[in-house]
Design a protein that fits this description.
About 0% of the residues lie in helices and about 55% in strands. The chain is mostly beta strands and about 850 residues long. The protein has a nine-stranded mixed beta sheet, with no helix packed on it. Strand 15 and strand 16 form a beta hairpin. The two termini are about 85 Å apart.
């Protein structure tokens, strides 16, 4: 809907009686009641940012009016008191006139109302407990009331009347949907349930017959206006703004509205387009003597009037200024259609507005056209002129095999002819290839090409690169395996493979190449290049034998490249190490000793073993004790050496092992506590180092007061094991501690109590040194009847027990033996049922 700075006014009322009230304008303004401030106001649509907000006009004071409607005959708003059932009349200033009581249902509330297009009746709904009981038809001439029955579980929040059909439209809160009502048959037509995130509060209709709702969207995050196309029955959010709350809307659809549209919206210079002006006259009568004019942008030349149901004198054919004088606009929705041709003008967006003059004063005298497709009020209608300076345009697209792809050329205008023979602006394809067209008008012509690539999805063209072995020695050989996978759905031909080996590596032989092609002599001994490879669908392997030179130990990365794929698939691929997450180089580890003799210093701690590892230096070993294993385990400091028999020449590794700084830990091996008790550890440490690091490891989380202090407080609820580790940065000592929790239920109950109010032993209650909650305590007579019960009380509190009376406040019970039963939840979360007997004496 379009408004002149669309303002829906929520008008606040003073309960005063006025001799004359100021009428409201019927210019698209919508009025309503704002809550929780109880104000009469208007809805304002800001054309600057296309947002909606509520603007108060006047306060209603103590009046409780929720049901309002606009009356066309006197241009005032009529409302019904929600609970006082009085009729009120409101003017443009928000002043309220009390017109007296109405004969409505005393026990009902009235929260929705609307006035018929002829201004004769106001309809309002009476509801009870959220369900409408009837429609009340109020005669606004004599204030008589006719009650009409309503069936079904409905609760109408607001009512609006269509200015052309006379049908009533409403929003039903109970069923969360819009409704229309034929007043002749009293039959409702329901529409789709509104979307869950939208909440409608009010309904109104504009002069063009469009139906709107106001409410909140995005689960209450924003205020919003929605339109309701009757053909779909589903609301569409048009604009948003700050959250506002209303109880009813009252718009005036009995004015005049002009909506302008242009088609096509995008075209080339020297092409034709049509401007359509949708005119909605909701006044109920003819509007004679109206003048129409449209000053088009320069270069827009009017060719003819395609449609004009309103008559009048036409001037301006062949120019950019069209005028139709002395039209008579009938009370309906109709349109004027004008054919316009463009000159050879520059590209860009062109805006313009039409104007109606000679309107009655009540309609403002003048009305500007509003763009049909936008919601901002009073905005111009635009046309995009697409002047393309290039002679040729090339575009690429990708799609999955089995899918269809829409090629859209609508931006190039309407004069289109594809190489497929189609003249549609959008064509649908499902095979790869070149699709092209020539577009343009009388001033220019452009060649446009769409290059479409298809592949299976998800498609994969990748190269996985592994080495065999992953660890090599100097002066040895290794195989580079390149696993090339093509799952794109088509063979990929004329592909090039390129790999530059690490420095010191040289290619020896291509062991396997299922892809063909030619090996190129590049003059670089480390570069491998194969051109003209044909990669079929599937996976196969390219294997290359390489020689490892006399290299120092370390990591030697390598990444190959295959290229020549279609641009939409990505023109190249890099090889990837399948043993890592990232797409990265494949590394071969060269083992060995950096020099002929290599020295390693390390330490050993008391009472510990140490593994001397020669594996990083080669594959064949000879230790000074005659061992040929890669690992030698020792328990004492000293000097140890190993000969590495691999690589270009034998080499030697010397291990010097010294004793580390000692540290000793002393702590108990076992601790026993009752459930709920705490225990503080007090270990001792003999440490000859300069630092002390402490680490506790608990099987059960959050049972230690700290994990990095020496003496934490422990309070587990179950038996567990703690590990304590201490370190001086060089050596470590540790100990395991069994922590036993005794969960014996220590509950004590007296077997006799006096209950004679002498302050001594007057209560029967349960006691324990442990914590627990008595979920249920019941006392039974000898015949099994419950004479006392309590819930959720604590142990050790006598007032939560039994004082010898029935339910603790009745009469004293006879002395004798009674049975008790208690359900107690203990600190570890377990609940147990205990029972016994107790003797009551006086």
């Amino acid at each position: 809907m379009k408004y002149w700075f669309l303002i829906v006014n929520f008008v606040c009322f003073f309960a005063v009686s006025l001799l004359a009230q100021e009428p409201l304008d019927c210019d698209g303004t919508v009025y309503c009641i704002i809550e929780p401030t109880n104000e009469f106001g208007r809805v304002f649509i800001n054309p600057a940012n296309n947002s909606v907000s509520l603007i108060p006009i006047n306060s209603l004071g103590a009046l409780d009016i929720h049901a309002i409607g606009y009356r066309s005959t006197d241009q005032l708003i009529y409302g019904v008191g929600r609970t006082d059932h009085r009729l009120y009349r409101i003017d443009a200033l928000g002043d309220v006139e009390d017109l007296g009581p109405l004969a409505l249902g005393n026990n009902l509330v009235y929260e929705a109302a609307g006035v018929t297009p002829n201004g004769e009746f106001l309809y309002t709904t009476g509801s009870l407990n959220g369900i409408d009981q009837h429609l009340a038809r109020v005669n606004l001439n004599d204030f008589s009331v006719t009650i009409l029955p309503v069936a079904g579980n409905i609760n109408l929040l607001d009512i609006a009347f269509h200015p052309y059909t006379g049908d009533m439209w409403a929003y039903d809160f109970n069923n969360q949907s819009f409704l229309s009502l034929n007043l002749g048959t009293l039959m409702f037509t329901g529409y789709n349930v509104t979307l869950f995130e939208n909440k409608i509060q009010g309904v109104y209709i504009d002069a063009s017959g469009k139906i709107y709702g106001y409410g909140t969207s995005a689960f209450g995050v924003a205020g919003a206006i929605f339109d309701l196309p009757p053909e779909t029955g589903q609301e569409n959010r048009r604009i948003t703004g700050p959250v506002g709350i209303i109880t009813d809307l009252a718009g005036c659809p009995y004015g005049l509205e002009v909506l302008a549209d242009a088609a096509p919206k995008t075209l080339f210079p020297c092409e034709e387009l049509e401007f359509t002006y949708l005119v909605g006259n909701g006044t109920g009568g003819d509007l004679p003597g109206v003048d129409f004019e449209h000053n088009f942008p320069a270069g827009f030349n009017v060719q003819s009037i395609v449609r004009n149901p309103y008559g009048g004198t036409v001037t301006g054919i062949g120019s950019d200024f069209l005028q139709i004088d002395n039209m008579s606009i009938s009370p309906e929705i109709d349109s004027i259609v004008v054919l316009v041709e463009l000159d050879d003008i520059a590209g860009g967006q062109y805006k313009s507005q039409a104007k109606l003059t000679g309107l009655p004063v009540a309609l403002g005298g003048t009305r500007l056209s509003d763009d049909f497709k936008t919601f901002a009020p009073g905005d111009s209608t635009f046309v995009n002129v697409n002047r393309i300076e290039e002679d040729s345009i090339f575009r690429s697209f990708f799609s999955c095999i089995g899918n269809e792809l829409d090629l859209d050329a609508s931006e190039f205008g309407a004069n289109i002819e594809w190489n497929t023979g189609s003249s549609d602006q959008v064509i649908t394809v499902n095979t790869e290839g070149l699709y092209y067209l020539n577009v343009g008008g009388g001033c220019q012509e452009v060649y446009v090409e769409f290059d479409v690539t298809y592949a299976s999805c998800p498609y994969t063209i990748e190269v996985r690169h592994e080495t065999e072995p992953r660890q090599a020695l100097p002066c040895s050989e290794a195989v580079y395996h390149f696993y090339i996978e093509n799952s794109s759905g088509f063979p990929r031909n004329d592909i090039t493979f390129i790999d530059t080996l690490p420095l010191g590596f040289t290619p020896v032989e291509i062991l396997q190449n299922p892809y063909g092609g030619a090996l190129v002599n590049t003059g670089n001994p480390q570069l491998i290049k194969i051109t003209g490879m044909n990669i079929p669908v599937g996976t196969d392997t390219l294997d290359i034998l390489v020689e490892v030179g006399d290299l120092p130990p370390g990591e030697y990365p390598n990444q190959a490249r295959i290229e020549g794929f279609p641009a939409e698939l990505g023109p190249f691929r890099l090889s990837d190490d399948p043993n890592t997450q990232a797409v990265d180089s494949t590394i071969i580890f060269v083992l060995g000793v950096p020099t002929d003799s290599f020295y390693v210093d390390t330490i050993i701690c008391a009472r510990a073993e140490l593994d001397l590892n020669a594996a990083p230096f080669g594959f064949n070993y000879l230790w000074d004790n005659g061992s040929t294993d890669s690992i030698r385990t020792i328990t004492q400091p000293g000097d140890y050496n190993v000969t590495i028999l691999d690589g270009c020449d034998p080499s030697y590794v010397f291990f010097t092992v010294t004793e580390g700084t000692p540290i000793d830990l002393f702590v108990e091996d076992e601790v026993m506590v009752f459930l709920g008790e705490s225990y503080q550890f007090l270990p001792s440490v003999i440490n000859l180092g300069d630092s002390l690091l402490v680490e506790w490891v608990a099987e059960v989380d959050s049972t230690l007061s700290c994990l990095d202090c020496l003496s934490p407080l422990a309070r587990p609820l179950i038996t567990t094991v703690y590990t304590l580790k201490v370190s001086n940065g060089t050596c470590t000592d540790s100990s395991l501690i069994d922590f036993v929790v005794d969960n014996t239920r220590r509950v004590f109950a007296p077997n006799i109590f006096s209950a004679n109010r002498d302050g001594i032993n007057d209560w029967f209650y349960l006691q324990s040194p442990d914590y627990g909650v008595i979920r249920n305590l019941r006392i039974y007579s000898r015949w099994g009847s419950i004479i006392y019960s309590s819930t959720n009380s604590e142990l050790n509190f006598e007032q939560t027990g039994w004082n010898g009376k029935a339910d603790n406040n009745g009469k004293f019970l006879e002395p004798g033996v009674y049975l008790w039963q208690a359900e107690i939840e203990f600190l570890d979360g377990l609940t147990e049922t205990l029972s016994g007997d107790v003797m009551l004496i006086r």
